[in-house]
Design brief:
single chain; about 70 residues; mainly alpha; 3 helices; about 80% helix; elongated
Amino acid sequence: MKKLLSAAALAAGIWLLYIGHERQQSLAGRADSTLSSLGQRIDGAGHTPTHVMYYAAGAVFVVAGAFGLGFVRR
């Protein structure tokens, strides 16, 4: 069961990384990046684009899946 969940986490992480890349390259992703940097200049608070959240979540799932499957040893 652990191997199955780890494989699912690895697959979900790869899928999220792919979705993040596609979002970054799309018109909506470029607009999101532009508006985030504009908002940061206006109020000084951090504004994270959506594709960065996809990258972060995907990286967490890939690392968790890799540890669970034994690709990475402690």
